[in-house]
Amino acid sequence: MRRRHVRIGLLALTAMAGSVLMASAPAGADPTHSTASAGSNRSQLEDREAVSLVRIHLTGADMLDKVVAAGFDLEHGAKRVPTGIEAEAVLTAEQRTELQSMGVKILGSDEGFAWNEQADGGIRAAGKQAVQPLNHEQTVRVVRADWFTTKGQGFLYVEARTTEGQQADPVVQMQLENDSGPDTSFGFARTMSRFVDSGQYMFHRNLFKLDKRPSQIRVTSSTGGVTTGKVSDWLENAPPPLTDNPGYKSNFIDGYKTPQQLYGRAKEIAQQYPDIAEIVYLPNKTNGYQRKAQATIGGTGESAVVVSSAAWGHEGGNDITVEFVDRPGANLPLTVEVTGKAIRVLLAKDASGALASTAAEVAAALETRSAGLIDRAHPYRTNAGTGIVAPSAPVALTDFLDQKRAGAPEGEVPRGPATIPVLRIGKHRDGTKPGVLIQAQDHAREWVPATTSLEAAERLVHNYKTDRETKKIVEDTDVFFILSNNPDGANYSFYNFASQRKNLTNHCPDENADPGRRDSWGVDLNRNYRVASGHDGYSGGSSVCTSGTYQGPEKLSEPESKNIIWLVEKYRNIKFMMSVHSNGGQLFWQPGAYIADGRITTPRPPLGDEAFYWQSAGRILSQVKAYRETVVTPENVGGSSDVLYSSAGNVREDLYYTYGIYAFGWEVGGSVYNPATGNWQGGSFQPPWEGDPDLVSGHSETMEYANGIMEMFRVAADWGKDKKDPKSTLVPGGGKYHGPVDVRFETNEPATIYYTTDGSRPTLQSQRYEATDFREPGQVFHVTETTTFNWFSVDAAGNIEQNYDPTKNDKRNNYRTATIKIDKK
Predict the structure, then answer these.
(1) Active site: which residues (predicted)?
(2) Could you tell me if residue 416 is left (phi over 0), alpha (psi between -120 and 50 degrees) or otherwise beta?
(3) Per-residue CA distances from 567 to 331, 511, 666, 716, 777 (Å)
(4) What is the CATH T-level fold of the domain 140-233, as seen in this structure?
(5) Which residues, listed in sequence order, are joined to residue 574 by a DSSP beta bridge?
(6) What is the per-residue DSSP string for 476-502?
(7) Chain-centre distance of CA 591, in angstroms?
(8) In angstroms, rounded to a whole number, what is the distance separating the alpha carbons of residues 81 and 57?
(9) What is d(CA 567, CA 577) in angstroms, rounded to the nearest whole number?
(10) Among this protein's residues, is 667 annotated catalytic?
């Protein structure tokens, strides 16, 4: 039977075809720059279109997939609501109309979903409401009930699932009640929100503020199912962060950094601390911060010609001029004259002396007769080029990279292919220590991940000799920092177009290759990997070259993604990876992609790996909270296809499934609760560096999430030193039972259990103990006849219980065993 999984969590929508007005961008808004206004000879077809920020509602992942396929950039900053998905989008007027024609709703300022913090009396349930013990027949299950505090306020987050949740007529409703602490009664009834995505029931859930921490909740369905659950603490009572240690040095980053600044500082660190740091250069150079020089010549689409130089703009393409010339006379042929880098197209005339050259004819002449100066010439976009070309004064080709945004960093950007340096920090860089790969800025517009990663690197080298815990990290791990994995796109974001997401490699055919599309070219590097790729039918990657999630012409087509594979294959000690993004405030892992038809995810990690991910997430996020009480809520933690969206061809899946690397994805810059307004304030890709320290600012996000990265290093160090075998038990244990009994496995640490029930010895090929459902604990076995369980457990570090060797059939058979004897009398 195929298990169908559903996703929950956040997504965002930002259209990339126009310039983006970002009120929070520190370098100012992307200009709605008119190239036509820069010179009277330029065509308005080169202009960036005016845009506006709108909030939208999509009915679910099916609509989301259609919008992605249409070429829109869908990523980050939105939220899943009971009726679908709400997001923000920066759209041109044409894009807004197109989305509305697809059924996307444009939300008004007073529209949208908000959690109801007030008790509403709940729903009226049918049938008997007797609390049932946890067993295989239970129709209602509590997935999680988490209490957390932030900014002096307490919150309860609950997820519950009913086996009848798919029922649509009538829709099954769920009621949530909580007590006020031990030995108090249930009350404060609330109707839970039912979440369905593309026809697939996920669960019911609620988030609301409470004055007192409850100890239990009760969930009741409208069909009569009822259960109780204990309330757990989420990120409470965390150990103090390293920054609390006496004399600990932090707060090294004073603003956003360009790739040149990041790489320059990485090389300085390697020079200043040669005993613990070095630079590893990645072998595949990027395409470079460079483009062919272009011009769109002509005032209307049908008669316009798009011209691209053979040389890169900075290597001579920018020196080319093209002029369309009207000559007196009749019956004149179409010819091309080239003098140096000045190209004159002498337009044809018919018998009456009227201009007769079509755009298609002029384009063909330029490609064949321009003395190698022009590499590409074609009609504008999808036009056939049948319009008659009008005369034009000389138009200078340009790569459009000489325009600097207001407030952008000073200094010229190096042109040409870039070599990406990896800053490697560790006392023992010989492959004997667990390696941790920190990869930042796959997506160019995400500036905080780079500063967060550099801050963590600075803390390692500056505190190595003075802080005991940092010394342990440096001596027990081998850390690899890629401070910007997309330098070309990042430079474009800093200097040209703040909302650039992809790299600068232009794979677009003629219909999308004109300079008016220049802000939409490139490949989404986190859709360019081999596992669960869009090329294999998984959702979340686009085949449209102008889409924000364009997956590239083939898997690993881009040098930036090839470099990651090279790195983990060369340094096989890399066992952990964090791909740092912004700005949704999620921490996630596998499964990361799904096939839309049936929402079938990639294989879920073994229950032990899943538990290890959750345990690590708790440690990491507790350290984030320690800085200023920012809480990444439980709904935003887990498999990314569950909490975020499907991201076909992402790096995490490739590294986990191909190399066994514990690969995390992190969206830094999550929502911060504002007690003054009672609202959760979301982040942005480039929040103001300085701002209210208790709300959204680049500096605060950098510091708090650097805390989390430091804790990830400690997770890896502990993993490398873990030599203890796990322990597991069957609950209740073996023995005689009068009638059927429900049993389950428990472990003393995150561990995967392999078991048999046919009397055979368990091996790594035996059945694996799995979760009841996604985000839930292990399954319950309903035993109706005498059964012997043979099993062993393996922890995340590979230690096997009782030193059992499942690969050898020795006489010891030191696996665990228990027999459930059922007395049927």
Answers:
(1) 667
(2) left
(3) 64, 36, 20, 18, 35
(4) Immunoglobulin-like (2.60.40)
(5) 435
(6) H-EEEEES-S-HHHHHHHHHT-TT--S
(7) 12
(8) 9
(9) 12
(10) yes
The H or E element spanning position 673 is strand 672-674
What's the mean per-residue pLDDT of the chain?
A: 90
Record the tokens describing residue 73, joined without a space.
């950039």
Superfamily of domain 242-287+414-720: Zn peptidases (3.40.630.10)
Check pLDDT > 80 for residue 407. Answer: no
* Residue with the two structure tokens 């480039």: 686
What order do you get walking across the sheet with 728-731 strand by strand?
Answer: 728-731, 741-747, 781-783
Q: Which of 57-71, 247-261, 300-314, 382-396 comes out lowest in average pLDDT?
A: 57-71
Check whether domain 728-822 has CATH 3.40.50, yes or no: no
Q: DSSP readout, 78-123?
A: -EEETTEEEEEEEE-HHHHHHHHHTTPEEEPTT-S-----S-----
> What distance in Å separates the CA atoms of residue 204 and residue 199, rounded to the nearest whole number?
14
List the structure tokens of 191: 């109707």
The token pair at 724 is 């203890």
- Token pair belonging to 602: 């990639």
Catalytic residue among 629, 667, 704, 801: 667
If DSSP codes are grouped into helix, strand and coil, which group holds residue 749?
coil
What's 454's DSSP letter? H
Cα-based distances in Å from 219 to 119, 186, 645? 14, 10, 28
**Of 564, 633, 656, 708, residue with least CA distance to 242:** 708
